[in-house]
């Protein structure tokens, strides 16, 4: 299994505002719809529909993650639209939707996620090692480090969304 090592930060500005301030250079943008098929405190299985905002190209993925916090195990692979639709419909769930703007800051790839169903924007930065992640000094505009705060995890946000339907 591959390791995902990332840090997440709470933002108080939108990706468009950050781009206008020239602190973030946009490279691409995707609209993401994700639904969890199974989850508990340590594991999650989800499906995603990703639409490239520039080209309209659509991709579907199935992901298994294990662990919490800074470093997690992850397996992700492409699936067909038909498999996605079957799994999504079988779940009967409301998908979590967000717009992901990917760009560059100071040599790092940064993903800014703006959630549609709530007033939340986060920045994510992935790293090659735990040491690099721990030594990373974020810019002031990143805001609070929420890497270990479970209330900001996608699965928690999705679970809260289901309770509102």
Automatic annotation (TrEMBL):
SMART domains: CYTH
Residue stretches making up the CYTH domain: 2-164
Protein name: Adenylate cyclase
The organism of origin for this protein: Saccharibacillus kuerlensis
């Amino acid at each position: 299994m591959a390791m995902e090592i990332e840090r997440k930060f709470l933002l108080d500005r939108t990706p468009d505002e950050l781009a206008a301030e020239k602190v973030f250079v946009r490279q691409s943008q995707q609209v993401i719809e994700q639904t969890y098929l199974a989850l508990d405190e340590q594991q999650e299985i989800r499906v995603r529909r990703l639409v490239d905002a520039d080209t309209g190209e659509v991709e579907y993925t199935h992901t298994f993650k294990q662990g919490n916090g800074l470093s997690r195990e992850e397996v992700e692979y492409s699936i067909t639209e038909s498999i996605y639709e079957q799994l999504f419909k079988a779940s009967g769930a409301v998908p979590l939707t967000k717009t992901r703007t990917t760009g560059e800051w100071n040599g790092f790839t940064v993903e800014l996620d703006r959630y549609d169903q709530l007033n939340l924007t986060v920045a994510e930065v992935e790293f090659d090692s735990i040491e690099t992640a721990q030594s990373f000094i974020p810019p002031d505009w990143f805001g609070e480090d929420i890497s270990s705060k479970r209330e900001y995890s996608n699965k928690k946000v999705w679970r809260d969304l289901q309770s509102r339907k």
